[in-house]
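User: My instructor asked us to take a sequence, write out its structure as tokens, and then describe one feature of it. I'm not sure where to start. Here is the sequence I was given:
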Amino acid sequence: MPTLGAWTLPSPAARMNHIIEMARDAATLPDFAPIDMTTSNVDFYDAHTRRFVTEDVVYMNPTRTLRYFAETIRASGVHPYVALWNVSSIRVSAAFVEAGLLPQPLYGGIVLSEGGLFAGNPGTVRGLEAMADFIPATLQLGNRRQEVR
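Assistant: Let's start with the prediction itself. The structure tokens for your sequence are:
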């Protein structure tokens, strides 16, 4: 996931260099390149000791960086794939589509997570439904839109 912003924060350009390079050759041209459409605290919590193991780890993808990823990925001839971690990432993705920064149909995945306090909803039916409820009807998600609802 080249657009991950947690733990190490290379520049947005450094995080895209390998995608651009791969896209130059038809033999290595990726079908998709991911964009993690979120910013979140991702500190670790130890329930056994009732303490945070870390207190300053941020998964950071500001809007300017997300815009750079979307524009760079599309300019390289690769289709963006959005990782939807929470409701705000759905809303940001919908705004990017509306602004013409992401194409429709939009390909992506809802990320559900267990074992952490950050970003994604729990990996349950209820967690999935909570995310799916916020996908706007105007957002085309490939050919599977009806299956998501």
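For the description part of your assignment, you could build on this observation: The two ends are 27 Å apart (CA to CA). Try explaining in your own words what that tells you about the chain.
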